[in-house]
Each structure stands twice: as structure tokens, then as C-alpha cells.
Amino acid sequence: MSGTTRERPLTPAGRRVLDVAGRLFYERGIGQVGMELIAAEAGVTKKTVYDRFGSKETLILAYLRARDERWRAFLGERLAAAPSPRERILVTFDAMGDWLRTNGSRGCSMVNACAEVPDPGHPVHKTAAEQKAWLRGLYLELATEAGYDAPGPLADRLVVLHEGAVVMFSVGGMAHATDIARETADLLLTA
């Protein structure tokens, strides 16, 4: 993608645009937010938005990547502080609960974007699939690190548990969904 934010650093105006777009896309949905609104709330011209990002699609992808980077950094801090490999697995659920309560009342931005863009060939789906593959890979790495005999099937179960908790928190209104997911993960790790 020529001219994207992945190839060059953001200017202060570009950072404002991305921050505003991210907030609006997450809170209102990507289909409900136009470039005019983003420009107005970022205090820039619509031309600046297009000069920096090129298209709404590129801006949406930049938003998804930026939000994912923030989640990974947030989770990484929690993982680094966990005292054991087994606890590193469980702390992913604690971190997810804290993230959802402070950053994610509408659930997963990747899932939300895929719901709004139903074409499976759209780049949004590729970005979301990459994020979900990363999460499954993280669980595989953690399960292997903790010495479990069948880390692949365990990683599958943990990622399904994780994603299910996000949905039940945001869509099902279950405030304690991540606590239940953690307890269930603990049972899986003990079995």
C-alpha cells in the first residue's frame, strides 16, 4: 500500500486524524463516520485527511492496526509481569477484562469492522484474520512455554474462550464474562 502510515511516520495532524478516526470508528461504526466528520473533529481539512491517508479504506486499516498495536502493548506489559508460564496464560484473561472495561465497551474492533464490511475479500478481513492468528499463536507459544502436552488444541480452546468472553461482555451484557473465561481457562490448564 503505497503512501500508507506503515511506510512513513505520522505528522501531528496525521496522528490527530488517526486518533479521532479511531475513536469515531469504534464508537459509531465505520459506516456511520464520514471523512468530513473526521476532518472537522481533528481540526484539519478534508484534503489533509486524504493527503495523509489516501482513502477511507486506508484510514480504516490504519485505525485497526493502531488499536491492535495498543492492545498488544497493553497485554505485553501484563505478560511481562506474570510470575510463571501458566500464570501468563491466565493473565491474558485478566488483561482482556481490564481492556474491555477501559477501552472496549463495544467489543472487538476487528470483529465489528468485519461485520460492517461483509466482503471476505476486503482488506479489513485480512487484517482481522491476521490479528486472530496472532492471538492463537500467542496462546500456542504460552501453552508450549508452560509445558503442556498438546499445546495446539489447548491454544484453540483458549482463543475460542477469549473471543467468546469478548462477545458476551460487549453483546451479551455479561460484565463478568472475562472472569468466567479465566476460571474456565484455569480448569483447562488443570485438567
Automatic annotation (TrEMBL):
Q: Which residue numbers delimit the DNA-binding region?
A: 34-53
- Could you tell me which residue ranges the HTH tetR-type domain spans? 11-71
What is the recorded name of this protein? TetR/AcrR family transcriptional regulator
Enumerate the UniProt keywords alphabetically: DNA-binding
Q: Which PROSITE patterns match?
A: HTH_TETR_2 (PS50977)
One Pfam family hit: TetR_N
